[in-house]
């Protein structure tokens, strides 16, 4: 009943990281190249769930768009746009706020993590309701598949719950029950400073992440200083079991090299991190430097980026509008 259609997004709340690249962007490009209809969104409405400097948000949205294009998203074959330019996202999110239950939101681990040790009463209402907006982002296009990193798995389950409850409450079969697509060697890239935290653009420590715009020296230095244990690399991946930092670096290598962790471990078995880290840094620089260069070139012409995003928003809206209108009709509006 539903034609295969991919939707996914990234927040323009900071520069793109290696985690965003391996867990999301690189997958987005693969899906586009498989010839499936692909819609990619810079989710600026999500970004403002925590305060953003307006001028910085505007620039980061352009920079993220440049990152997508530099990584291989072709704005002619994929739809690339920012969320706030298609009004249906916020409109459908309101409907879903009335379908979803408070308890569902309260159980989201990301909500718990982001308010841990803080006064949750002082978090924005938007941060609490964020997963409902995310469901709207996806379902506004009747997207059937969403490529994401592992951290988004629970939000995808909630999206499915909202679709199922809407269909049930209104006795329709209108929204698809969307499948998450979590694949590859690095679905959860960890912080370089703390193997128990994911690498994130919102981590206050810049040393915890590789940014797509980092230069070669910075990348080499961050990997050199990455926390590891003193053991050499094991013979098999089973030997990485209780070594989260080592496993993380191996997974990053494997994802960048388009190979498996098994293969990387076999190639480096018995070598220490003194040898592995420079090899990893060289590989990362070889893969990321061309992206950074292309981003710089694109950023020199912000008007062209705005034009691309404007065109994407028009095409996105052409899909979204009839689905929103039909939703209003189902609800009795
Ligand atoms: P961030 O946490 O960097 O702000 P977003 O929330 O904007 O990232 O997520 C954008 C996409 O990048 C999502 O699909 C998310 O799953 C993926 N992603 C983010 N961080 C990582 C990571 N450390 N490893 C793998 N994928 C990630
Ligand atoms: Na996130």
UniProtKB/TrEMBL annotation:
A motif ('HIGH' region) lies at residues 12-20. GO terms for biological process: tryptophanyl-tRNA aminoacylation. Its main location: cytoplasm. It catalyses: tRNA(Trp) + L-tryptophan + ATP = L-tryptophyl-tRNA(Trp) + AMP + diphosphate + H(+). GO terms for molecular function: ATP binding; tryptophan-tRNA ligase activity. Its EC number is 6.1.1.2. Gene3D superfamilies: HUPs, Tyrosyl-Transfer RNA Synthetase. This is Tryptophan--tRNA ligase. It comes from Albidovulum denitrificans. The gene is trpS.
